[in-house]
């Protein structure tokens, strides 16, 4: 399966599993040290074709072809420049994740196996208008320390070294946000896993090899 087909499949998966909606999301994949493929502006995640992607030079910030790249290109490009290990980026606004992005509620990772692993590091940036240089620079800076960047009153961007892990990171985030919100709604007190147990789990790679930010 080539990179474009993998992205098309990932985008449809996001729509089908309520991890994205309408035109609110965008996805990209690194091609090499200088280029990425990113969804074109105005594309619907559920209806992507091979013609809906733009090649972008992350060093010169220039596009190839006639399509206009997503307005969130600055943020994707900035992540790829700062994180050589990033191979795929997913940006979307899932309901519960965006609910938390629009609040001051804390997303805890010490809940279950997948949250311990995928949500170890979550960074936050203040609100900037979509597609602006300011947003791109803020997200790129925070990407140095985390593979998940929550954008206040906007949504989230996640990245990883594979599409499958990026999707799992996004799904785990949405699951955790939903669990925390539902627990509060139902008056259920969640029990966190002790810090020393979490450290042991992560340091001994009892799930998968640990992935951390660059700082």
TrEMBL record:
GO terms for cellular component: cytosol. One of its GO terms (molecular function) is metal ion binding. SMART domains: Aldolase_II. Keywords: Lyase, Metal-binding. GO terms for biological process: pentose catabolic process. Residues 5-181 form the Class II aldolase/adducin N-terminal domain. PANTHER family: 3-OXO-TETRONATE 4-PHOSPHATE DECARBOXYLASE-RELATED (PTHR22789:SF0), FUCULOSE PHOSPHATE ALDOLASE (PTHR22789). This is Aldolase. It comes from Domibacillus enclensis.
